[in-house]
Amino acid sequence: MEWLQSFLLDHYYILVPVLWIIGYALKQTPIIPDWSIIWILLLASIVLATFAYRFSFEAVTNGIIAAGVSVFGHQLVKQTVKDRTK
Q1: pTM (predicted TM-score)
Q2: Cβ 26 vs Cβ 43: under 8 Å
Q3: How far is CA 80 from CA 10, 41, 73, 85, in A?
Q4: How far, in Å, CA of 19 to CA of 42, rounded?
Q5: Where does the sequence pass through the membrane (predicted)?
């Protein structure tokens, strides 16, 4: 967890579970193609970060990192569970 703390500031951690919830909702929406979900999450993360912590370089970069951690974390869980069931 130390590696994550060196990249993502503490007050941006809340974005990760929020993005998981948004991603889950988007995945359940049939009119949204799967390839666009990561782009929507990236945009949502930047918007939420800049809205919560004002527009700054720090907010944008931490929004991007939070989106990356969210997508990577989801894929890590998904691939681990998927491989275990095979």
Answers
A1: 0.80
A2: no
A3: 26, 22, 11, 9
A4: 9
A5: 6-26, 35-53
